[in-house]
Amino acid sequence: MPDHTHVVNNGKRDLTIDELALMQPGMDRLMAEVGTRTHRLYYAAQARNWRLAEYFYRSVVKQLRLCATSRPKYTEEMGRFLDGESVAVRDAIKSGDLDAFSRAYTTWIERANELHGVFGKPWIRWVTPKSVPEEFDFTAGAEEKPE
User: Fold this and answer.
1) CA-angle at 39, arms to 94 and 51, nearest 5°
2) In this structure, is the dihedral angle defined by the CA atoms of residues 55, 45, 90 and 146, taken in order, positive or negative?
3) What is the pLDDT at residue 145?
4) Which of 75, 90, 114, 141 has its CB surrounded by the most CB atoms within 10 Å?
5) Residue 18's pLDDT is what?
6) What's the predicted TM-score (pTM) here?
7) Which residues, including other chains, have CB under 8 Å from residue 78's CB and lie 6 or more apart?
8) What is the bridge-based pairing of β-strands 7-9 and 14-16?
9) Cβ(50)–Cβ(93) below 8 Å
10) Helices marked H in the chain — which ranges?
11) Average pLDDT, whole number, for the chain?
């Protein structure tokens, strides 16, 4: 192993790469962001705002890929999830088909919850909140389909 240490400065103090690595979020924080984005994705689709739904879908996928990179033990299952159940959600959004979206979304969430059990946390069961997030106008641009 090389005998040197890289140091970065966050504007407040010098940090080693090891200190910086320790500050990276764990799965609990990463998945909290996935949940928020999935909530928004669902209500964007309900409003038939397919461009916004696609935006949140891409955001969820990006976050899930970060989870797999950050925690390699999830890489294989996460890859299967992204290449499997996630594709039907993406395709329903691209086609602007609310019925197909509802079916795919239900399967997507069910599989995500199954994966919690696969990784030893069956007590984690995510559900879509019944209330529409108040911080977005889910109808803005709703007429436009994703490209």
Assistant:
1) 30
2) negative
3) 61
4) 90
5) 82
6) 0.84
7) 64, 65, 67, 68
8) antiparallel
9) yes
10) 17-22, 27-46, 50-70, 75-83, 85-95, 98-118
11) 90
